[in-house]
Amino acid sequence: MTPDTHVDAETALDHAGPGHKDDLRLWLRLLSCARLIEAEIRRRLRVRFDTTLPRFDFLAQLERAPDGLTPGDISRRMMVTGGNVTGLAARLEEEGLIERRAVREDRRAVTLRLTPAGRREFARQSAAHEEWVAELLGGLSATDRAALLRLLDRTRRGVRAAISEGGA
Amino acid sequence: MTPDTHVDAETALDHAGPGHKDDLRLWLRLLSCARLIEAEIRRRLRVRFDTTLPRFDFLAQLERAPDGLTPGDISRRMMVTGGNVTGLAARLEEEGLIERRAVREDRRAVTLRLTPAGRREFARQSAAHEEWVAELLGGLSATDRAALLRLLDRTRRGVRAAISEGGA
DNA sequence: CCGAAATCCTTTAGGCTTCAAGGATCATGG
DNA sequence: CCATGATCCTTGAAGCCTAAAGGATTTCGG
């Protein structure tokens, strides 16, 4: 409100160097880019397969694990909470796409695996999904793609480092 | 099912060039990168301010519009549905961070604006948010930042073009 | 052996998000 | 004027997601 406050806010940013504002721009652009693609993929999954991205990701995890996974495994791989997995699994089982099986060695646990119908359905969805992504990213040159891949890898590593430092 | 079908599926991918799989990798990396940052920011907003990203974004929109915005405006700017805005606005109003005001010229509409408390609260959150982003992205060199910004811009334009073509 | 702690999964409450439907108001063409 | 259609916002149903608490089982130290 007062002039002093106003100046302080600005100088605080200036002292922190030019990176502050640039980083915000970079993050907002990264976010909008990811959201744009994600929203389109969600839309197409809904329109063409009457499903959702979490369901698709769930089936993708099981597809890669022929022997099945426990809810805990899926929770860790999808980076979501256990309660979330319980709900998704209930609906997918209800639709006959996955099945539950008791684990002999541990009566607390259960393994989830694709049913034949689930495997078939995921194959259809997966092929379309791959085409969509190629279509959406098709505008980039091979050079740009490679550069972007490398930069994103560096970004991710940097972010992970920052999180584990700060989180310690 | 039949051998022919199987071959067709594979050749279809091959004909599309090596970009298919690469694009998928690129998309997954972009997504994991964005989600990593977003999850950390959501976590900090919750822990330190007991709030959420949608609420923060909502206040940010109002902060930039001193004269207030209608739910429709916010819906468009945040790229979410109107019903979503209704619910967020109800909770933010309940907490005294925003206020509703009738519009004289149009009795269907209403303008939402920050209360003084809302403006104060957002200032706190916004400053912290900016620091967090700088901290998380701080590992990147100036060169990488600039390159990434440019590549993401190209990506976004390409995706938008692909969507508007396909969506026509 | 046995009790405490850890692990596994589920449940519950609450917030976020969408789609679809509905009520109120405005604008327009007849 | 007024009926029709458009626009604005809200509501309702359903799915996604989290944090926190709870029940069942396993593990492990004593």
3D architecture notes:
The structure is a homodimer of 168-residue chains. Chain A is mainly alpha-helical and 168 residues long. The first copy, chain A, has a domain at 47-137: Winged helix-like DNA-binding domain superfamily/Winged helix DNA-binding domain (Arc Repressor Mutant, subunit A, Orthogonal Bundle). In chain A, 74% of the residues lie in helices and 6% in strands. The first copy, chain A, is built from 7 helices and 2 strands. The radius of gyration of chain A is 22 Å and the shape is globular. The two termini of chain A are 37 Å apart. The interface between A and B is large, with 57 and 56 residues. Chain A binds a DNA duplex (30 and 30 nucleotides) through α5.
CATH superfamily of the domain at 47-137 in chain A: Winged helix-like DNA-binding domain superfamily/Winged helix DNA-binding domain
Tell me the CATH topology of the domain at 47-137 in chain A: Arc Repressor Mutant, subunit A
Hey, which two chains have the biggest interface? A-B, 57 and 56 residues
| Quaternary structure | homodimer
Keywords (chains A, B): DNA-binding, Transcription, Transcription regulation
Domain HTH marR-type (chains A, B): 23-157
Pfam families (chains A, B): MarR_2
InterPro entries (chains A, B): HTH_MarR-typ, MarR/SlyA-like, Tscrpt_reg_MarR-type_CS, WH-like_DNA-bd_sf, WH_DNA-bd_sf
